[in-house]
UniProtKB/TrEMBL annotation:
Biased segments, Polar residues type: 1-22
Entry protein name: DUF7330 domain-containing protein
The organism's place on the tree of life at top rank: Eukaryota
Keyword annotations of the record: Membrane, Transmembrane, Transmembrane helix
TM spans (from-to): 76-97
Annotated segments matching region Disordered: 1-24
Record domain DUF7330: where: 311-438
Pfam family of the protein (one): DUF7330
C-alpha cells in the first residue's frame, strides 16, 4: 500500500513519538490511546482525488479497488494447481519415507493374549544356517528346558505373518523337565529378531512357551517378512512312566499343523488343541477330557480315548477312532466325517451321547455300544449331514438297552443299520425315491441266548411290524423280540431326493 498523501495526512494527528508508544500499552502505562487516532475536530475534505475513503473506524482504512475478473480467475486457478501439486508431492514423499523406514520394529503390534505374561525371551539365536534351494534361505534355533508345570503345559503361537508345525513327543533322554526346541526359518534377520519367543505364564501353575510374531498394521506384507517355526515339544518319558499323568496340555497356534506321536505312556487330565490352517493329527491320545478345535484343515486321530471328547473343524474333515465313556461330539462343516466309535459307559444312570454333525460332506460311522459289567444302558445317537451320503451302522449294543437314533441327510441316499439287540419303533421317510426296511440277517439268533441255543430260545423270534397305513415315501413300524419292548427305543431315518434304507 502506498503512503497517504498530504491531504489524507490532515485527517490524522501524529502524537509525540518520544512520549507515546507505537502500540497501545495494555498495562496502562503511558498514553491510553493508540499512537494514531481519528481527529474528529477537523472537518473532512471534499472534492479530493485521493483513492482512499474515510476510515471506517479509528485505526482501519478501507481501500476501494477495481476488480479484474479475468485476472482473479487466473490467479485462483494457479493457486489451486500449485496447491494440489504441492500436496501430491508431499504425499509421495511421505509414502517413500515411510516405506524406507518400515522395518520389523515399526508399525507393529504383538498379538499377546491379555492373560499371558512373558518371562524370559530369546535374545540371541544360536547360529544362522543357509538353506540352499529352500523358500526360506536362513534358519536359526533356540531351546527351553523347564519343569513340568503343576496344572497346564502351554504352547502358544500368534502372528499375522508366521506359520509352522508343532510336534509333540516323549523321550527317555529328557528327564524331569520339558524341552521345547524352536527352529525359525526366515529371509531377513531383522524380521527374525522382531519375533518374541519366550517362556510364558498364564495363571498360577500354568506355564510354557509362547511364540509371538509381530503383525503389521496393514493388510499386506512381502515374502521377506514371512517366518516359519518348527517346534518340537518333548515330554519327560522317565518321569511320566513313574506317574504317567499330566494334568493339562493346552495349545493355541495359528497357521500351524499339530502332530502328536503315539503317547500311549502319557495320560492327560485335560488336553486342548486349538489351531488354524493346519491339520491336527495324533496316533494314540488318552485324556480325561479332550477338546480339539480346528479351522480350514482336518482332524485325523488314530485312537483317542477319553471320558468325554469334543472335536470340531470348519472347512475340513474328521476321521479316526474314538473311544469314550460318557459323550462324544463331532462337528464339521464342508467336510466329511469317517469314524469308528466305541462308547463304553461306566455309569448306567446317565444316557451316553454321540453327536455327529457336518454339512456338504459324507458321513460314515461304525458304532459299538457297551456298558460295564454287561448291564443295560441308555444311548442317544445323532448323525446328520446335508448334500452328501449318510451311512451309519450301529454294530452292537448291550442287551435290553434303550437306544434312540436320529439320522438325517438331504439330496442323497441315507442308510441306517441297527443291531440285532435293538427293540423299539422306527420311522423312515424321503422324497422322490424309494423307502426300504430290510432284515439284515434272516438267520439271526436271539441275543439273549448263548452260542448254543436251548429250548427257551427256540420259542422267541424277531418280529418286524409295519404300520397299517404306509405312505408312498415313508414307512413306520416297530421291531422287537418281545412285544412288550416294541416302544423301548426309537430310530428315525430321513432324507430328500434320495433313497432311504433301514436295516434291522
Amino acid at each position: 500500500m502506498s503512503p497517504p498523501n498530504d491531504t489524507t495526512k490532515s485527517l490524522i494527528t501524529e502524537s509525540d513519538s518520544e512520549s507515546t508508544p507505537l502500540l497501545y500499552n495494555a498495562s496502562g502505562s503511558g498514553s491510553s490511546a493508540p499512537a494514531y487516532a481519528y481527529a474528529p475536530s477537523q472537518a473532512p475534505i471534499s472534492n479530493t482525488t485521493t483513492p482512499y475513503s474515510y476510515p471506517l473506524y479509528p485505526g482501519h482504512v478501507h481501500i476501494k479497488r477495481r476488480v479484474n475478473l479475468k485476472e482473479s480467475a487466473c490467479r485462483w486457478l494457479t493457486n489451486v494447481f500449485w496447491g494440489g501439486f504441492s500436496l501430491f508431492v508431499l504425499s509421495c514423499m511421505y509414502i517413500i519415507v515411510m516405506h524406507s523406514l518400515r522395518g520389523p520394529l515399526r508399525y507393529y503390534e504383538y498379538p499377546i493374549p491379555n492373560d499371558v505374561d512373558l518371562d524370559r525371551c530369546v535374545s540371541a539365536w544360536s547360529g544362522q544356517s543357509n538353506n540352499a534351494g529352500s523358500f526360506y534361505p536362513y534358519s536359526s534355533s533356540a531351546s527351553f528346558d523347564f519343569p513340568l508345570p503343576s496344572k497346564t503345559l502351554l504352547l502358544f503361537s500368534k502372528g499375522g505373518h508366521s506359520n509352522g508345525q508343532l510336534k509333540v513327543t516323549h523321550s527317555s533322554e529328557v528327564t524331569e523337565q520339558v524341552r521345547v526346541a524352536v527352529t525359525v526359518k526366515y529371509h531377513k534377520a531383522s524380521v527374525r529378531d522382531a519375533a518374541k519367543v519366550c517362556l510364558i505364564e498364564r495363571y498360577k501353575g500354568e506355564s510354557g512357551v509362547g511364540i509371538f510374531a509381530p503383525s503389521p498394521q496393514r493388510h499386506y506384507y512381502s515374502a521377506a517378512e514371512l517366518l516359519f517355526f518348527d517346534v518340537e515339544l518333548t515330554l519327560p518319558l522317565t518321569e511320566l512312566k513313574s506317574g504317567g499323568y499330566i494334568k493339562g496340555l493346552s495349545t493355541d497356534v495359528n497357521n500351524f499343523s499339530q502332530d502328536l506321536d503315539s503317547l500311549s505312556d502319557v495320560h492327560f487330565g485335560d488336553i486342548s488343541l486349538v489351531g488354524t490352517n493346519g491339520k491336527i493329527q495324533a496316533e494314540i491320545l488318552m485324556a480325561e477330557t479332550a477338546t480339539l478345535v480346528n479351522s480350514n484343515a482336518g482332524v485325523e486321530i488314530t485312537a483317542l480315548v477319553a471320558r468325554s471328547a469334543r472335536v470340531s473343524t470348519s472347512n475340513g474333515h474328521i476321521s479316526g477312532g474314538y473311544g469314550v465313556s460318557d459323550s462324544l461330539d463331532l462337528h464339521a462343516s464342508n467336510g466329511s466325517i469317517n469314524v469308528a466309535v466305541h462308547v463304553n459307559g461306566s455309569d448306567n444312570k446317565m444316557p451316553k451321547t454321540l453327536v455327529m454333525h457336518t454339512s456338504n460332506g459324507a458321513l460314515h460311522c461304525v458304532v459299538n455300544l457297551d456298558t460295564a459289567y454287561e448291564k443295560p444302558g441308555a444311548f442317544h445317537i445323532e448323525a446328520q449331514t446335508s448334500n452328501a451320503a449318510l451311512n451309519a451302522q450301529i454294530a452292537s449294543a448291550p442287551l435290553d438297552s434303550v437306544l434312540t437314533v436320529e439320522a438325517k441327510t438331504s439330496n442323497h441316499q441315507a442308510v441306517l443299520s441297527l443291531p440285532s439287540m435293538y427293540e423299539g419303533s422306527f420311522s423312515v421317510s424321503t422324497s422322490n425315491a424309494p423307502v426300504t426296511v430290510e432284515r439284515a440277517n434272516p438267520h439271526e439268533q436271539d441275543p439273549a441266548c448263548d452260542s448254543e441255543p436251548d429250548e427257551k430260545c427256540d420259542s422267541r423270534s424277531r418280529m418286524i411290524e409295519r404300520s397299517t397305513v404306509v405312505k408312498r415315501r415313508s414307512v413306520a413300524g416297530a421291531v422287537y423280540w418281545d412285544k412288550r419292548n416294541a416302544d423301548r427305543g426309537g430310530a428315525t431315518l430321513m432324507t430328500s431326493d434320495g433313497p432311504a434304507t433301514l436295516y434291522v
